[in-house]
Amino acid sequence: QVQLxxxxxxxxxxxxxxxxxxxxxxxxxxxxxxxVRQAPGTERETVAIVYLGxxxxxxxxxxxxxxxxxxxxxxxxxxxxxxxxxxxDTALYxxxxxxxxxxxxxxxxxxxxxxxxxxxVSS
Length: 123
Known about the structure:
The chain is an all-beta fold. Helices cover 0% and strands 51% of the residues. The strands form two sheets. Strands 2, 4, 5, 6, 9, 10 and 11 form a seven-stranded mixed β-sheet that branches. A four-stranded antiparallel β-sheet has the order 1-3-8-7, with no helix packed on it.
């Protein structure tokens, strides 16, 4: 059972930056990881994905040029770098994982979830 632990959320002013971290208890071959956010009253949104084996990454159009996803295999850690934050980025951010399939769009039910970390951006 893969366990995911996020950290790095907080409160910043618009234009600021944060880096979220997600440590996985294990990273079996074929695993992919992603960051999903959800704000009250809105639909869940997958903002970035990474296929660990091939280091293939992708980010959503809504955060393109501002967010980056990266990994440190030795630390079993995936990061979400967030720059030029906007009030609309305010949400609970979850680190998620699955085996072989982590789509950037749609309502895929990822198999593993962290507890979430809050990001609040004030104007």
